[in-house]
Specification:
The protein contains 9 helices and 7 strands. With 218 residues, the protein is of the alpha/beta class. The protein has a single domain, classed as Rossmann fold.
Length: 218
């Protein structure tokens, strides 16, 4: 039985949700995403990866919530070669992006060893040769990339401060956030160019989602 079939009713939510987002999925990508969902469910409790244990929650709150960024990335980072996912946790959005951008290296960095180990296992299980997990603090990670992303990092200021050395001159930060306040955005004006706060709509998810797009000044 395919992994997509094992998802049960959530398989339709995944495929129809991706279609609604304007993200075409090949049969291989659908299988990889379904397998990833199954691995998240299987190992989520053991590794303390996510509070959401049901497949329906994993599909809506994690897979579709990551897939929604794909058209945005295609627009803002054409010719994308290398992505850095900071504080990746269970590999979100890094694993999803590695599936959707097979031509790009995706580097997931997390300070928790078991989470990096899980992502490495996902890379092996799904055959994702472009996916790399690193167990270390971001301060000790020196690779330069085109896009730096994170999902609900503690603060925009910390996110940018800790990763400036990793962003190529023409690269962009893609900060995935819930609510975005002026109080958080205002201090950023002296540090980087916040060129777009992009509201997102995730099918089946009744919650505020935004991308804060930033680039280096100059």
């Amino acid at each position: 039985m395919s992994y997509l079939n094992q998802l049960g009713p959530s398989s339709l939510v995944l495929s129809s949700g991706a279609q609604a987002l304007g993200v075409p999925l090949s049969p291989v990508q659908l299988e990889q995403l379904a397998q990833y969902a199954m691995l998240l469910q299987k190992w989520g409790a053991v590794y303390n990866l996510t509070a959401n244990k049901e497949l329906s929650q994993i599909v809506n709150l994690h897979l579709l919530d990551s897939l929604v960024t794909v058209p945005c990335l295609q627009r803002e980072a054409p010719g994308l070669e290398r992505i850095l996912d900071v504080g990746s946790g269970a590999g979100l959005p890094g694993v999803v992006l590695s599936i959707m951008f097979p031509q790009a290296e995706v580097h997931c960095v997390d300070a928790v060893a078991k989470k990096a180990a899980f992502i490495n296992q996902v890379a092996i299980s799904l055959g994702l040769k472009n996916l790399h997990a690193h167990h270390r603090r971001i301060e000790a990670f020196d690779l330069e990339v085109d896009v730096i992303t994170s999902r609900a990092f503690s603060s925009l200021f910390d996110f940018v401060s800790l990763t400036q050395k990793n962003l190529r001159p023409q690269g962009v930060w893609m900060a995935m956030k819930g609510q975005v306040t002026e109080q958080e955005l205002n201090p950023m004006a002296s540090v980087v160019d916040v060129f777009h706060v992009e509201p997102l709509h995730v099918p089946g998810l009744d919650a505020s989602r935004n991308i804060v797009w930033m680039k280096k000044k100059g």
